[in-house]
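Hi all, long-time lurker, first post. I run a small reading group and we've been trying to get comfortable going from sequence to structure in the token notation. Rather than ask abstract questions, I figured I'd post a concrete chain and ask someone more experienced to write out its structure so we can walk through it together at our next meeting. Sequence below, copied exactly:
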Amino acid sequence: MGLFVMATVFAFNMPQASKNLSKEEKTTVKDTVTTHTNEPKSLMAQLNFADETLPAGDARVEKKMKKTLAAHYFSNLQTNKLHQKAAAWFPIIEPILAAYGIPADFKYMALVESGLHGGVSPKGAAGVWQFMPGTARTYGLKVNRSTDERNNLRKSTVAAAKYIKDLYEIFDSWTLVAAAYNVGDGSMRRAINAQNQDNYFKMKLNRETGSYVYKLISMKQIMENPVRYGYKASRSMLAANEKSDKDKNIE
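-- Answer (accepted) --
Happy to help. Here is the structure in token form:
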């Protein structure tokens, strides 16, 4: 059953020419088919994070991406909590990211970081953006015995936007920024230097960081295409997606 679902998601149907055509018509159809071969042949070719795409023709990356997408199906997570939180959080997060020049796709980081579990991590990270106390204070949040602004959505999002912007000044790649947010900028720089590689998808990283961007892309997919993955999004979330599609058409 799982293989059938995945096959349905990634299938691509090329237009078929009619058998009984004149020579001129056949030429026209042939040209049309040729044009279609330059278009994405699968969902893999359309997936991206902040407009940074997966490397084409990389079987390892494609296998890992499909596996991560499958893990986020409703049949595996059995929860609509992600869409409920997105409907509540995104109207606050989106304008703040935009104000700092951060791609909108980073809003999905909030769901990956704390959308399913929340609370304080074993390492001490807390809040929607899962800030460690030291990093939170560096970016202007109060963290003490009486106050923890990591739990304030608006203030912590401003801090996250500042942090993400600083990371981009270092790495000049949004996928590397996302990975660095997960593992730390120092560890990310050491990995880049040791491997002489700055393409996230081609790097060898620890298990959590190595799957982090794949999770972000998967989260983006189930938020933007809930029905495809077995979810029933809230009305406010569906309305937001519809508005986003209309804005893209206007542009």
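A couple of things your group might point at:
The longest strand covers residues 48-49.
Residues 81-250 form a domain with the Lysozyme fold (CATH 1.10.530.10).
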